[in-house]
Structure formats: C-alpha cells, structure tokens
Amino acid sequence: MMHKLKNELLYLLELQGKFYISVSVRKRRPTVLPSFSIRLDKKDREIAYLIEKISKGELRENSKSLIFVVRKFEECQKIAKMLEKHDFLLPSKKEKFYKWTKILGIIEECRHLTEDGFLEICRIKDEISESKSYTKFKKMIDNGELNFTEKSVEMGKKISRGKKIMNLLKNNL
C-alpha cells in the first residue's frame, strides 16, 4: 500500500511540479536560488500534507488552490533525490528535471559563485525556461557590473561545509 502511494505521489510531483531557478544580482553579486513548487486544488489538502512530510516548504493558499513551495537548497535536494530514480512519463519534464538537478550540483560545488559556473547556470536556465539570462548576465559581466571574487568562493565553501556538518549532527542525534 505504501509503495503504491509513493509511486502515485511521485507521478503527481512529476505532472504538477515545477522546477525553477531564479538568477539575480544583489549588491553587484550574482545570486542563484532553486525552488520547486506544486499547485493543487484546495480539495487535495491531504496530498499537500503528504508532500510536506517529504520536504519542508511553505504551503500557500489562494481562493482556488494550494501552492506548496520549496525554496531551501537542502530541501530541493531532497526532492531531487526522491525523483532521480523515478521513471518519468513525460520526456520534457524529465529533461527539465535533469537540468534542474545539474544546477543543484553546480550550487553544491559552490561553482555558482564563479563567473563560469554562474554563466553555465544561466545557460541551463535559458534551456529550461526559454529566458535570456545568459545574454543579460554575460553583458553585465563584460561591463564590470558583477563581482566574482575568490573570497566569495571560499566563503561559500566554508558555509557549505558547515551546513553539511550541521546536517550530519542533526541526523545522528
């Protein structure tokens, strides 16, 4: 019974879920924020609670629907890990998912803090959503409007190591 429920939930996440990457600039520094969301009918509140058990996120409500949004990087990784062995029905969704997970990998390696890594994310994002991020941010880099420093990369790696240690401690307590 539980296995059947899990498979049905995976297909629901595939069919209704959205894999998103936000790229922006704050104080001349590039920012990359992954997220996952799923929109459900208000009648499907129980499904939203099931999804919340898998990954912590924010459940928002409007007049017609519920929207479950996952914004924390570690929680996006949980969604990715759960779906990575899933047999996708839709080739287009499978392709978007794998590109999204590729971006998660770049972030995990802290390469999003480098010019090359950031531009690679922009290129992949453009493939997923048909946006013009690469062109926009490449132009900003060429004009000296973005800062990529070795200090940022080192700080990102320290923060990443610290988060991994905290997660290990949490899981072992």
TL;DR of this structure?
By secondary structure, the protein is α+β, with helices and mostly antiparallel strands.
Structural overview:
By secondary structure, the chain is an alpha+beta fold. The protein has one domain: Roll (Endonuclease I-creI), CATH 3.10.28.10. 59% of the residues lie in helices and 19% in strands. It is built from seven helices and four strands; from the N terminus they run αββαββααααα. A four-stranded antiparallel beta sheet has the order 1-2-4-3. Helix 4 packs antiparallel against helix 5. The protein is elongated. The chain starts with a helix and ends with a helix. The model has no long low-confidence stretch (mean pLDDT 84).
Summarize the helices and strands and which ones pair or pack.
Layout: H1 2-16, E1 17-26, E2 29-41, H2 45-54, E3 58-61, E4 65-70, H3 73-83, H4 91-108, H5 115-129, H6 133-142, H7 150-172
Antiparallel strand pairs: 1-2, 2-4, 3-4
Could you say what the CATH architecture is? Answer: Roll
Helix content: 55-70%
CATH topology grouping: Endonuclease I-creI
Fraction of residues in β-strands: 15-25%
Q: So what's the overall shape?
A: elongated
Which strand order does the major sheet show? 1-2-4-3
The named CATH superfamily: Homing endonucleases
Alpha-beta content class: alpha+beta
Element string (H = helix, E = strand): HEEHEEHHHHH
- How is the main sheet built? 4 strands, antiparallel
CATH C-level: Alpha Beta
Distance between the termini: 30 Å
Which radius of gyration do the C-alpha atoms yield?
18 Å
Mean pLDDT: 84
